[in-house]
């Protein structure tokens, strides 16, 4: 591969664009939050969504690559999913689908649920989050703390073995039973991808003045991947996207298998996916994610969530192939605090993977016995 760092056309990174694009038939009757009777979206906690820091990494890059992490965990709800949660609700308000009294219903095992719970709490909307038994107690507590109602689907879909299908069926049932329901439908809603096009990728390009060779991001709904790809296509920026998926996810084909890292991979192909969005696809295992998280904590002093550990490991594996001087960005979707009982628990790791500490601790890094 040759280095292909190229600047965006003048003004591309900073040009003003609408926060989301609405179909023409909707745009002419679009309504602002205030006009619809909601608190303004230009103030309060939702103003803090986006504009996350881009920090340099020192434990990867071999001293010949410039590597940065986009710290999406510093969004107010704790993850990148604050962006699509807000943007989908905003689009729903503008299209007249979300009004005071609307009940928002979505299937999520974590971050999207928290992002929606935050947005709905701010707007005074009721939110029902459909989860499954794999959702952590902490995430359920978080959802409830924001005032969301939590519905637990106990069994996976009998045909596919996937909880996702069972959760979506339950979402449809609930929507039929409420008079004014709204389904954000994160796997298919264009405003999910648009939030990353007009937010995540635009911010990266602006901060690096268009000189970014590679962006690595984790995939689930593919909102991040699609949004970044759309931005690059629209601005003509020659950045390569690397999609990091879970082994056992069906997004890019391959057999379905059990995945235990929340938020990474999918049991169905997202409607937002388009052919050729990623220049490369990398599959990571559950253990790759754990080891990547542990290495990032020790080498970068960054406590990041499971999918970010997968991105870190994927980058370590690919870095030999990248040309000298390449500028690389790893999108870290959330923080590690919500993974203290799993990824960062020695007992949890030992029970699932055995003695694997050598994957992150060199002999020099092992702490003495008195600790
Ligand atoms: C922790 C985590 N990483 C990665 C992703 C993938 O992001 P996207 O849905 O934009 O593909 C998600 C999505 O929920 C997530 O929660």
Automatic annotation (TrEMBL):
InterPro entries: Cys_Synth/Cystath_Beta-Synth, P-phosphate_BS, SbnA, TrpB-like_PALP, TrpB-like_PALP_sf. Signal peptide: none annotated. This is N-(2-amino-2-carboxyethyl)-L-glutamate synthase. GO terms for biological process: cysteine biosynthetic process from serine. Its EC number is 2.5.1.140. Keywords: Pyridoxal phosphate, Transferase. Belongs to the cysteine synthase/cystathionine beta-synthase family. SbnA subfamily. Its cofactor is pyridoxal 5'-phosphate. Residues 48-334 form the Tryptophan synthase beta chain-like PALP domain. It is an enzyme of class 2 (transferase). GO terms for molecular function: transferase activity, transferring alkyl or aryl (other than methyl) groups. It comes from the Bacteria. PANTHER family: CYSTATHIONINE BETA-SYNTHASE. NCBIfam families: PLP_SbnA_fam. Homodimer. PROSITE patterns: CYS_SYNTHASE (PS00901).
């Amino acid at each position: 591969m040759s280095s292909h760092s190229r600047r965006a056309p003048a003004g591309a990174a900073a040009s003003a664009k609408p926060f989301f694009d609405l179909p023409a038939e909707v745009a002419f009757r679009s309504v602002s939050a205030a006009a619809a009777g909601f608190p303004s979206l230009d103030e309060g906690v939702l103003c803090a969504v986006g504009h996350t820091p881009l920090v340099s990494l020192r434990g990867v890059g071999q001293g010949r690559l410039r590597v940065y992490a986009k710290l999406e965990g510093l969004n107010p709800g704790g993850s990148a999913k604050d962006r699509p949660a807000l943007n989908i609700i905003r689009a729903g308000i503008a299209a007249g689908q979300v009004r005071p009294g609307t009940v928002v219903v979505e299937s999520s095992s974590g971050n999207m649920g928290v992002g929606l719970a935050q947005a709905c709490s701010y707007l005074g909307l009721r939110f029902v989050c459909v989860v499954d038994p794999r959702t952590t107690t902490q995430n359920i507590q978080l959802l409830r703390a924001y005032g969301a109602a939590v519905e637990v689907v106990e069994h996976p879909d009998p045909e596919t073995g996937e909880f996702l299908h069972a959760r979506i069926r339950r979402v449809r049932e609930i929507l039929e039973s409420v008079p004014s329901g709204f389904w954000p439908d994160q796997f298919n809603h264009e405003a999910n991808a648009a939030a990353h096009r007009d937010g995540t990728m635009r911010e990266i390009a602006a901060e690096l003045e268009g000189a970014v060779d590679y962006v690595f991001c984790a995939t689930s709904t593919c909102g991040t991947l699609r949004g970044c790809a759309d931005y690059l296509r629209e601005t003509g920026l020659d950045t390569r996207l690397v999609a990091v998926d879970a082994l056992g996810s069906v997004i890019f084909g391959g057999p379905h298998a059990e995945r235990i890292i929340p938020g990474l991979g999918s049991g169905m192909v997202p409607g937002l996916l388009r052919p050729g969005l990623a220049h490369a696809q990398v599959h990571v295992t559950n253990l790759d994610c754990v080891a990547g998280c542990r290495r990032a904590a020790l080498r970068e002093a960054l406590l990041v969530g499971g999918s970010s550990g997968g991105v870190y490991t994927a980058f370590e594996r690919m870095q030999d192939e990248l040309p000298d001087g390449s500028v690389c960005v790893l999108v870290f979707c959330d923080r590690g605090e919500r993974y203290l009982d799993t990824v960062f628990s020695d007992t949890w790791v030992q029970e699932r993977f055995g003695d694997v500490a050598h994957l992150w601790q060199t002999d020099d890094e092992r702490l003495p016995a008195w600790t």
